[in-house]
Design brief:
The protein is an alpha+beta fold. Helices cover 45% and strands 14% of the residues. It is built from seven helices and seven strands, in the order ααβαααββαββαββ. Strand 6 (241-244) and strand 7 (252-254) form a beta hairpin.
Length: 265
């Protein structure tokens, strides 16, 4: 099926195809003019382990060290991805998100391991989102600051500040990127949906037209046996033969209604 034939079919059924085209265009205009784009800015943080607890010799030299809470349970994990997972879960809590939104962050932010450094690396990644590059950078900064506070808060109950894990920034959120999952993906979805609906409408309309033509030709063939008529289909151009009359005289039946020359109605 070439493009010219497709265009003819669309124009032939314009009463049903033109509304589909109009709705598709409205959806495309909405996507480009109303839906906001999505930018992402990422920041990476290295989780730095604290120094080891004081030894017996150090405590003997400085008895005050014996009163310091240096036993940090989070430092017992050899794989720091466990701490990253715990911290990511805390940052996704509804109460924390509500506070971050009040501070100007976009609620679509994410906190998790930096996959490009490896799944077991001590690198945590904060992804800030926003409708503009500046908004995504601000989200990453606000979330990163709160993440550091939350990391300290989850250790503060039992551990002295000198023996807590800290987060050190290794990559600043200064290169926001426009995400294809925003406007472009929705625009493609609108166009694909419009094409599918158009195909269904044209197919159904063609099927109904074929059914009506077959029924009409069957009626004409039955009437041909009793009437001396020439049938012409004005839409088909040249006369199209669909059968001969039942009298066996060789006369041909074509589609349409037109009395032959010299005959009376």
């Amino acid at each position: 099926m070439d493009l010219l034939l497709i265009a003819r079919k669309i124009w032939r059924h314009k009463l049903v195809t033109l509304p589909v085209i109009a709705l598709t265009l409205v959806g495309a205009v909405y996507t480009l003019g109303v839906k906001q784009p999505l930018y992402e800015a990422t920041a990476s943080y290295l989780l730095v382990n604290p120094p080891l607890p004081p030894t017996d010799e150090e405590i003997a030299r400085d008895p005050a060290l014996g009163k310091v809470k240096a036993d940090n349970p989070y430092t017992r994990f050899t794989d720091q991805s466990v701490i990253i997972d715990v911290l990511a879960r805390r940052m996704s809590a509804v109460s924390v998100k509500r506070e971050l939104v009040r501070d100007g962050a976009d609620p679509r932010f994410t906190v998790g391991p930096a996959e490009h450094f490896g799944g077991t690396s001590p690198i945590l990644q904060v992804t800030g989102t926003g409708a503009t590059p500046q908004a995504s950078i601000k989200t990453a900064q606000v979330v990163g600051g709160e993440m550091a506070v939350e990391l300290d808060r989850m250790q503060a109950k039992d551990v002295d500040a000198r023996y807590r894990i800290t987060a050190q920034m290794v990559e600043a959120p200064d290169a926001p990127q426009l995400q294809a999952s925003g406007q472009l993906r929705m625009l493609v979805a609108v166009c694909v949906l419009g094409a599918i609906v158009m195909f269904m409408v044209v197919s159904i309309t063609d099927a109904l037209d074929s059914l009506r033509r077959e029924r009409w030709e069957a009626v004409v063939k039955d009437a041909w046996t009793a009437h001396d008529l020439t049938i012409i289909d004005p839409e088909a151009g040249p006369e199209r033969t669909v059968g001969t009359n039942g009298a066996g005289d060789g006369r041909q039946l074509t589609a349409g209604w037109s009395a032959p020359s010299g005959s009376e109605e």
